[in-house]
Amino acid sequence: MKITKFLITLISITILTFMHTHQRIEAIKLSYSINEREAALHKLLDRRRELEYNVAKLKTPTHLEFKLAKEDIKLVLPERWQVFEAAGLREEGARKTRPLLLTAIMGLFSLESEARATPSIE
Amino acid sequence: MHKSFNKSRLFVVFIVFISILTFYLTRIIYLQIFKSKDYSIIADNQHNILLQIEPQRGDIYDRNLRKMAIDCKVDSVYAVPIEMPGSDKGEIAANLSRLLDLNEDMILARLNQEKSFVWIKREVDKDTSERIEDLNLKSVRLLKEHKRFYPNGPLASHLIGFTGIDDTGLEGIELLYDGYLRGTPGWRWTVRDAKRRDIISEDVKFIPPSDGLSVVLTIDEAMQHIAENSLDEVFKKYKAKAASIIVMDPHNGDILALASRPSFNPNEFSTAGADLYRNRCVTDMYEPGSVFKVFTAACAIEEGLVDINQNFFCEDGEYRIAGRILHDHKPLGTLTFREVIEKSSNIGVCKIAEIIGKERLYKFIKLFGFGELTGADIPGEIEGIVRRPSEWSAVSISSVPIGQEIAVTSMQLVTAVSAIANGGYLMKPRVVREVRDSGGNIIKSFDPAIVRQVISTETADIIKDIMKGVVESGTGGNARLEGYTTAGKTGTAQKVEAHGGYSHTKFVASFVGFAPAVDPRITILVTVDEPRPVYYGGSVAAPVFRDAARDILRYMKIEYDKPGGAVKL
Fold first, then answer.
1. Which residue of the set B129, B263, B290, B410 is catalytic?
2. pTM (predicted TM-score)
3. Which residues lie below 8 Å from residue B555, measured CB to CB, with a gap of 6+?
4. Helix-strand-coil split of chain A, %, nearest 5
5. How far A7 CA lies from chain B's nearest CA (Å)?
6. Distance of CA A10 to the CA centre of its chain
7. How many domains does chain B have?
């Protein structure tokens, strides 16, 4: 009886010890895996920063000027006589910012222009 | 006899084994008990590492959140000499010297040191780091370090500044706001295995790094580019010694563009001389010359001492005062107060100043902010020189009102003129608008600040009108803008010679103005130091103002305010 109890205790302790050791090993393996993923994440974040820098550089006025010159694209500002302010555009803008309900009410009472050109389906 | 022989052999073997056992037991006891502490410390040092985690430095943006400075990681090359076989060091040094373009003896000297870490070269480019990796040397490794990059190159270099090798601000905003930008390093007390891999599960303590905050400037990248292009043209055309331009929003003091020449590229600051780093807009002072006349005029109007239609006889170009003969640039007869400023008559302004008196004039000079710091967030700002009336000589009343015997900085001048443009309020120049965290949340905001009211709105309107006249019918004709009303003042100031007296060959040409004159949106000051062969402010600086103002106002989509602008349907 005593020997049986002793053996059971010994086996239990052995099993618990194995389980503990196994868990420690798994934790360490997980650490390595986390390390690798962290390193990969940092690499991607660093790459992202590099790309942000590249994008910022491509958008600089100097670079854009250089590209325009290289492609021989000539942009000029309009002369004063070429600038027309169309009254309808102002109304369109106002219409877009007006609340929907107010627009509907104004529509009932024909308080805005009725004719509105729409693009041809053809 | 046979039995006793066997027993004695057995005894000998027994003694030998006992001796060996005793030896090992003694050794074990010695190592485990007496030397355990020492070896524990060695093991601890090998496996337990305190790692500093570098934070990401904050970025610098323009007012539209376009990146002006960004932090990226680059490789730096280091070696572990103690792991390197002695026979290989020569060959390794030769290879590294070829790849890194460094002196071979210098590298060899470092490799011969009994150290576990020596720098070979810091912050190498990507191609070089790939070639180092291809060498496959176990004891030569790459370490990621933070490096600052400026996508715009030399654009706004004087304002933004640059960082050093350890990502510490050395000039400009990088220096002044280093505390916000640099962040706080983190720490990790971790365990490493024999292959130097971190075992995170065994981490004792981890304090994450706090990344740096980002700084949002008031400058606009596009306006800065426009201003610098205009400045480059005049700098090269007139072979000037130096030049500067400041564009300010007169209503809130925002600096929209600021540049000076000669300049440098902050990506390669080490190749530029230290003299190029200084921001001449705040570090250099000069006698402003005729542009200063507007402040004398403002004082006279504000104090109610003159009428705008009052006549002043300009002595046909020569005026004797306190033993000195004051000249105009050409003989002028009787002019109204307005015409005195429009035609920039030194004699006319001198007579106005005689009416004002030196005490009152000094008071207004100080009110306009001259002789004191503007408070702009730019390192190296100086106060300029404004002498107290008690220190004035008899001729000072004919010099100070026309911008001589007084030294100002460009920042002071543009701020003072902005006070006229905005109706009389001296604004504190603002270079930094806010500070944000990495998530874009505003942590700290720097609001526009009124320093004081200098003149009344009525006085400001009168002076604005006079300055409009300078452009429309006076010396500032070259600053005229199509479609926009423009106001300004030219300046052509003789420089003081080192041995005393004024030079007849060295001048500072300037133009300061604002547009549209009716509702000013921008104030621009252009200063050109020693232009040649032409040196008049109206000829050299005024066209720069015109070109920059035209493009900036169009960029801002400011409507034409001159009669006969856009046609309405």
1. B290
2. 0.83
3. B222, B223, B226
4. 75, 0, 25
5. 31
6. 59
7. 2
Residue B24 CB partners (closer than 8 Å, separation 6+): none
Q: What does chain A come to in residues?
A: 122
- Domain containing A47 equals 2-69
Active-site residue, B290 included: yes
Q: What's the ipTM?
A: 0.78
pLDDT tens, N- to C-terminus, chain B (569 residues): 555 567 888 999 999 999 999 999 999 999 999 999 998 888 887 777 788 888 999 999 999 999 999 999 989 999 989 888 888 889 999 989 998 989 999 999 999 988 888 999 988 888 898 899 888 888 898 988 889 999 999 999 999 999 988 889 999 999 999 999 999 999 888 888 877 777 776 666 889 999 999 999 999 999 999 999 999 999 999 999 999 999 999 999 999 999 999 999 999 888 888 889 989 999 999 999 999 999 999 999 999 999 988 999 998 888 888 888 888 888 888 999 999 999 899 999 999 999 999 999 999 999 999 999 999 999 999 999 999 999 999 999 999 999 999 999 999 999 999 999 999 999 999 999 999 999 999 999 999 999 999 999 999 999 999 999 999 998 899 999 989 999 999 999 988 888 888 888 899 999 999 999 989 999 999 999 999 999 999 999 999 999 999 999 999 999 888 875 544 33
- A46 with B155: Cβ contact below 8 A: no
CA-to-CA separations, B57 to A19, B69, B93, B115, B147, in angstroms, rounded: 45, 10, 33, 30, 9
Of A28, A57, A61, the CB nearest to B221: A61
- Of A34, A80, A86, which has the smallest distance from its Cβ to B565's Cβ? A80
Which of chain A's residues have a Cβ under 8 Å away from the Cβ of B144?
Answer: 46
Q: CATH code at B114? A: 3.90.1310.10
State the residue range of the domain holding B261: 221-271+280-555
Among the candidates B121, B149, B177, a domain finishes at B149
